[in-house]
């Protein structure tokens, strides 16, 4: 049995596909607690060639963090209504894969469950993949 399972979500419907699998694992008794993680990556906005002011930047970060918390609360409520024990965490960082793997290690997660776009070949080399990075950096099983 896995006591703690981490489910990284990026807000997309594709990422949420993993939730049905996690729900099944909980119902089978294979998972105790589900931890939902959203890594907020904020790109610096440019306004006509000039960087945003400090206040604009702070407002953007605050708004992104609030949207992340609301999103995770909504997903947690759906899972909670099914009797699933859920914790949520929102972290701002520029490197989602590393953040996910580090979070799993620091919080003694026993398995990570995530989806992938399935990029292959040149596209994967050019664009990279969070899932591939998590698989590479993680010290726990990745489903």
Jot down its keywords.
two-stranded antiparallel ribbon; alpha/beta; single chain; 143 residues
Over all CA atoms, what is the radius of gyration? 16 Å
Main pleated sheet: 4 strands, parallel
Estimate the global geometry from the Cα principal axes.
globular
Largest sheet strand order: 5-2-1-6
Compute the separation of the termini in Å. Answer: 14 Å
> Can you count the helices?
5
- The structure class reads alpha/beta
State the oligomer.
single chain
Beta-strand share of residues: 15-25%
- Percent of residues in helices comes to 40-55%
SSE arrangement, N to C: EHEEEHEHEHH
- Contiguous runs where pLDDT drops below 50 for at least 5 residues: none
User: What does the average pLDDT come to?
Assistant: 88
- How many beta-strand segments? 6
Could you characterize the architecture of this molecule?
The protein has 143 residues and is an alpha/beta fold. It is built from 5 helices and 6 strands, in the order βαβββαβαβαα. The protein has helices at residues 13-28, 54-80, 96-106, 121-127, 130-137, and strands spanning 2-8, 31-40, 46-47, 50-51, 86-92, 111-112. The strands form 2 sheets. It has a 4-stranded parallel sheet. Strand 3 and strand 4 (50-51) form a beta hairpin. The model has no long low-confidence stretch (mean pLDDT 88).
Write a brief structural summary.
The protein contains five helices and six strands; from the N terminus they run E-H-E-E-E-H-E-H-E-H-H. The protein is of the alpha/beta class and 143 residues long. A four-stranded parallel β-sheet has the order 5-2-1-6. Strands 3-4 form a two-stranded antiparallel sheet.
């Amino acid at each position: 049995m896995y006591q703690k399972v981490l489910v990284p979500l990026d807000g997309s419907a594709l990422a949420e596909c993993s939730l049905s699998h996690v729900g099944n694992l909980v119902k089978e008794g294979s998972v105790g607690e589900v931890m939902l993680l959203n890594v907020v990556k904020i790109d610096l906005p440019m306004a006509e060639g000039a960087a945003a002011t400090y206040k604009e930047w702070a407002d953007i970060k605050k708004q992104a963090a609030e949207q992340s918390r609301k999103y995770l609360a909504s997903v947690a409520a759906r899972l909670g209504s099914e009797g699933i024990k859920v914790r949520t965490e929102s972290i701002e960082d520029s490197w989602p894969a590393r953040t996910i793997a580090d979070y799993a290690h620091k919080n003694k997660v026993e398995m990570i469950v995530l989806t992938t776009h399935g990029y292959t070949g040149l596209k994967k080399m050019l664009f990279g993949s969070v899932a591939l990075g998590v698989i590479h950096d993680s010290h726990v099983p990745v489903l």
